[in-house]
Amino acid sequence: SPDENNVYEILFENYIFHIIRNESYTLQDNYGISKGKYLIVFDQSRLLDCLPQLVEQSILEAYFPNGWKHYGIYCQNHIIDVIAAEEPRIQKCIL
Questions:
Q1: Most distant CA pair in the chain: distance in Å?
Q2: Pairing between β-strand 89-92 and β-strand 78-84 as defined by DSSP bridges
Q3: The pLDDT of residue 82
Q4: Which of 18, 40, 63, 67 is the most buried if burial means most Cβ atoms within 10 Å?
C-alpha cells in the first residue's frame, strides 16, 4: 500500500503541453532516450517529434529559445506526459 506520509508535489510552473494516458494502451518501444524510473526525462521521444504538429513552433521558439524537454510521470495506472522548458519544482508535502 502507498505510504501516505511520503507525498510529493510536482509543479511545472509554465508547461507547454501535457497529456494523460492510460498505461494499459501505451505503445512500448525502444525509440525514446531517457533517464529515470518514475519521473523520466526524455532527450528523444515520439511526443517531442510530434510537438510541431500540436503547437505553433514559431511561438515556442520565441518564448523558449533554449528549448524544452519531455517529462514522463509514471503512476500506477496512468502516464502523465509534460513538455516544459524548465524543470519541475518538487517538494515534499506536509500532511
A1: 46
A2: unpaired
A3: 98
A4: 40
CA 22, CA 49: separation in Å to the nearest integer?
20
pLDDT in tens, 27-62: 888 889 999 999 999 999 999 999 999 999 999 999
Q: Contact, 35 vs 71, CB < 8 A?
A: no
Nine-digit cell string for 43: 532527450
Instruction: Inform me whether the pLDDT recorded for 65 exceeds 80.
Output: yes
DSSP 14: T
C-alpha cell at 14: 509554465
CA angle at residue 3 from 22 to 71, to 5 degrees? 40
Do 17 and 80 meet the contact criterion of CB atoms below 8 Å apart? Answer: no
Which residue's entry shows cell 509534460?
82
